[in-house]
Design brief:
By secondary structure, this protein is mostly helical. Among the domains are: 75 residues, no CATH class; 79 residues, Methane Monooxygenase Hydroxylase, Chain G, domain 1, CATH 1.20.58.1690. The protein has 16 helices and no strands. The radius of gyration is 26 Å and the shape is globular. The relative contact order is 0.07.
Length: 417
């Protein structure tokens, strides 16, 4: 009887009249989510280690632990004013967590794991969010953007569909983040990234992503310019002259080895085959055909012949093949250059590390990795493979690349948070 009375008084907003019992009232109201507050209304919430530590809710402001009340209630912009970036990130992710999303970012997952209401759902999909929740996520994202200022983060590109970005706003982003925001411009228009598994997985987890019939012509002039700015910044920071997707700029001029330095083996393979793809070749290798099918410029031609490539194309292909072979062989004979790893994405680093194992015939449980290496003439599966086949320099290179992958994971976490 007393518990029902306390809960009723709490719902009426008279918790203060209960004196010492108020804290229990507030906790009970939060745990059972009995009240759905009006947008902009003050809601008494007790700060706890589970719900944001010292982040106490000020009058009229939202605090971690309150988002269940907003599954069908719009947030008022004033409820987000004055909140710091981490609090806003927790509030935004709480909307997903209430549906059971698991988070790869350690601190985000740990925060929600401690909440009594959290139940991880292995079948979670962002499509479960209703329109109100999507609108609330958008509002919180906009508040985060306001706190960050002009600095761009993954998820921001919808704010720049009609505004040209500046290189200075990209400073501090990792290679992976740059790749994501560049791809995000096209993802917002529905481009399918299933040919690039890590990007596909990233966008599949975005509540706004809707793969659809896509053409580069759907981009406006500002969006195309922003892709150009991001690509130019990537190249400048990495110190490379060309990236996959730019072979058309080299169809009338020769590449040199110096132009290729800084590219990963995977990028070299894509670039080498791009010269053929630009002339309409179809590929028997599934991952290559899938990659080119997803490129907006690619048009397969039934009448393609090797003679379709020009003398300049052939010279550039030969230059790439020579440098690719040199880099591949060096994995077993010399230490990996720090400059090669400096801005290498996590996925490319993973492929590079596993190439060392593949050189000795290791079979991979990851089907995508196995299919990738199976597509190369030099790969010979070895049933008797053991790690003892690795040389000291190969072990050293594996450790160095793995350390880079772990460092890159920090940026992966930052993207999700």
């Amino acid at each position: 009887m007393r518990a029902r009375f306390i809960r009723a008084v709490c719902l009426a907003g008279l918790g203060a009249a209960l004196g010492a019992a108020a804290s229990g009232c507030r906790t009970d109201a939060l745990r059972n989510q009995a009240a759905v507050p009006r947008a902009g209304a003050a809601v008494p919430v007790a700060a706890s280690a589970r719900d944001g530590g010292a982040l106490a809710a000020e009058k009229g402001k939202l605090a971690p632990g309150m988002m269940a009340g907003y599954a069908s209630q719009a947030i008022a912009p004033g409820q987000l004013e004055g909140l710091d970036l981490k609090t806003l990130q927790i509030l935004r992710n709480e909307i997903f967590a209430r549906h059971g999303r698991r988070f790869t970012t350690a601190w985000v997952q740990e925060h929600f794991r401690k909440q009594p209401w959290y139940r991880a759902d292995p079948q979670y999909q962002s499509s479960v969010l209703n329109e109100t929740e999507r609108a609330n996520v958008d509002l919180i994202r906009a508040a985060e953007k306001k706190v960050r200022g002009v600095k761009i983060a993954a998820g921001d590109m919808k704010y720049y569909q009609d505004q040209e970005i500046q290189e200075a706003w990209l400073e501090g982003l990792s290679e992976r983040e740059l790749q994501i925001i560049r791809a995000e411009i096209e993802a917002l228009r529905g481009r399918d990234f299933s040919s690039e598994p890590w990007l596909w997985e990233h966008f599949q987890n975005r509540y706004w992503y809707r793969p659809a019939e896509y053409s580069r012509s759907m981009l406006n002039a500002t969006e195309r310019k922003n892709i150009e700015i991001i690509t130019g910044y990537e190249k400048k920071r990495r110190g490379v002259a060309i990236l996959p997707g730019e072979a058309d700029r080299w169809q009338a001029k020769r590449l040199s080895e110096a132009d290729l330095r800084g590219l990963s083996l995977h990028e070299l393979r894509l670039l080498r085959n791009e010269f053929y793809a630009r002339r309409g070749r179809t590929f028997l290798t599934a991952w290559l055909q899938s990659y080119f099918d997803a490129q907006p410029w690619y048009r397969a031609k039934s009448g393609f012949r090797d003679t379709s490539v020009t003398a300049t194309d052939k010279a550039n292909i030969e230059t790439i093949v020579a440098y690719e072979g040199k880099l591949h062989d060096s994995l077993g004979t010399q230490a990996v250059s720090p400059s090669l790893l400096a801005d290498m994405g996590q996925e490319d680093a993973r492929r590079l590390r596993n190439e060392i194992y593949a050189r000795h015939g290791k079979r991979f449980q990851d089907r995508r990795l196995q299919a990738y290496f199976q597509s190369f003439d030099w790969y010979r599966p070895n049933p008797g493979y053991r790690d003892t086949l690795l040389t000291p320099i190969e072990r050293q290179n594996i450790a160095k690349i793995l350390a880079h992958e772990k460092e890159a994971q920090v940026y992966v976490d930052r993207v999700e948070a």
